[in-house]
User: What shape does this take?
Amino acid sequence: VQLVESGGGLAQPGGSLRLSCAASGFSFNTYAMSWFRRTPKGFEWVSGIYFDAKYADSVKGRFTISRDNTMDTVYLQMNNLTPDDTAVYYCAAKNGWDSLHSPRAYNFWGQGTRVTVSS
Assistant: This one.
């Protein structure tokens, strides 16, 4: 099983980045996918998708999660970035749509991609 994130980097405040997470080794279309992030404040769930998409309040209206089940890839479009979005972003996969916010509920994790928002 592999989850490989890409697309991180440096963005200016107000800018955009698009993260990708390519999955392999499991039945991608039967798993819920989420993005988490590790900031100096801690580890937090950002967004998740199965049939529906859900968002943390801190990113609602700015971030959009999507998935392409033909490509086994999940994306996170991040717009209007702020310095508070600076973090290492991880994608994760889990069976079922429950306990979406709980890292312990996830079966598989990527290695993370760093996002820095700074002028």
Q: What stands out?
A: The first strand starts at residue 2 and ends at 6.
